[in-house]
Input
Amino acid sequence: MGWPHPIHPGETPLLSTHFGEVEARTHAGWVARGGYEGLRQALTMTPEEIVAVVKASGLRGRGGAGFPTGMKWSFMPKEDGQPHYLCCNADESEPGTFKDREILRWTPHALIEGCAIGCLGIRADSCIIFVRGEYTEPGRILEAALAEAYAAGSIGADAMGSGKRVDVFVHWGAGAYICGEETALMNAIEGKRGNPRIKPPFPAVSGLFGMPTTINNVETLAAVPPIITRGAAWYAGLSLSSPKSTGTKLISVCGHVRRPGTYEITMGLPMQELIFDLAGGMREGRTLKAVIPGGSSVPILTAEEAATCITDYEGIAAAGSLLGSGGMIVMDDTTDMVFQIMRLAKFYAHESCAQCTNCREGTAWTTRILERILRGEGQASDLDLLLDLADNMTGRTICVLSDSCATPVVSGIKKFRSEFDAYISGARAPVLQEA
Amino acid sequence: MSADPATQEPVFTPARRAHLEQLAPRYPTRQALLLPALWIAQRAHGWVTPAAIEEIAAELGVTTAHVQGVVSFYTMYHTHPVGRHFIQVCTTSPCHMCGATKVVEALLEHTGCIDLGAPSPDGRFTVIEVECLGACGFVTPMLIDDDFIESVTPDGVPELLARYP
Ligand SMILES: Cc1cc2nc3c(=O)[nH]c(=O)nc-3n(C[C@H](O)[C@H](O)[C@H](O)COP(=O)(O)O)c2cc1C
Ligand code: SF4
Ligand code: FES
Output
């Protein structure tokens, strides 16, 4: 449901069905809602069977990259005598993204169950849920649910009386967006600085503590229990569009809409419906200007591009952007695109781990140039300079944070160039003062 | 505030050591206890003191330099004393677009903080701006100590602060 709003008829509640129900947070409440049935069934299946079902469902990673989950699991070695790890990524820090928090807060047992099934699928003894340090409330609710799940014997040394051991626990982050990058996340768990690692080796070969590891997003893992109980074909059938985009997707909508919140849609819903029906559209007298559909790292869409866009992996890619994490930032005609792009660049400059020169220097320099433009001190050559910098920041670094900073700059200049020009020519009054 | 006797006490009292050791079986290395240990230290003293860094290094069998490197990487660990109540307000684009700066202004005004990051003269509050708190639909979100608070408006600030004496 569109938490904190009632279910909209345009939604398809699956993961969000019990958002807002306090009892669903408890073990008994979850069981009463059919919970732990997926895990019960998975405990009778072989790892190969679990992976096959997830593969056939078409589930793709909900953390940003959209990588097919079953395939990712199949990369894990079979019985190799080494410990395997599952890491659940609950670092949710990409501007515009606030959907995993609702799973953590309202249906923590759905996640615990998904983590346990994931462990069975990849032959891991334990799943470590990495929760960002700022998620004090969601993390505490999750910890309370874990304690209950252990006490009830749903997980632990003898999960649901199966004789199989499944451990799930929380590891708290401590502030740093970059720890959402999967290899940085593993370093954070290992007690190191959260610097991303060079790949290869890929995590399935050498990940957490050098062991085979899979990293999955909260929403990805929470989608697994219903796939087990209701079947891959049912999940794959949930699609209004492409067979490559199956199931439901939580979209957190923020910015200039009347009803910001987390909405659950069937893949393929027109973006127009999502913004104007579900999220309530623009405030009185305002018109839509731009949409960043998948978290701040994806290209900006104009209102025209959004008007015909289908909300799924392929549809948003066809419109020139990405579904990403499903964090949708909606901007109306009052938005100063230059300022907001500067603010995003500043975010990336602040969050760069500074290992790579192109990222460390590029994010800082990009921010400084955009600030200079906003102070009315920009030069005609600055836009080319920004695009040049962006080019140097793309595809040249250890992780894609650097690319993510370049993306809104490049798409912003391409699509809203006149706003940059207005500051540079002096047609528009500066909004920043000398620092 | 560094003269606060509480910060002179060791981090690892028997109770806190037991808390840390309870987590140890989860990980194959002692070093993996570093982030949890730093949280325990910060909860104990309000910030991560130089003495705590030495203690943790010894406890986990890693170098002091390693602990210092990690502390400086993660923004939520304080390496200096902060006001009694620590306020972290989001001002990243989605929140900025919807009025977060007005909330920051109201916070500075009503806490008496001269500037972001500087404790208020009465030592009661420190206010800082932070990046996305992952609650972008609930503008303006903030953390006050360990409390996550959604949808704060400028008008709501005085009443909110009154809850933190
Ligand atoms: C800078 C950066 C930040 C990221 N932050 C997150 C995050 O907060 N949550 C998340 O699930 N994935 C995040 N990712 C993606 C992860 O690296 C990883 O691809 C994902 O967790 C895999 O899970 P999935 O396959 O289930 O989507 C981030 C990636 C990068 C490069
Ligand atoms: S691209 Fe940036 S954030 Fe990623 S590893 Fe390099 S410096 Fe760190
Ligand atoms: S931008 Fe403020 S919480 Fe995400």
Summary: Residues A 95; B 90, 92, 94-95, 132-136, 141 surround FE2/S2 (inorganic) cluster (ligand 3) (CB under 6 Å). DSSP finds seven helices and four strands in chain B. The longest strand of chain B covers residues 85-90.
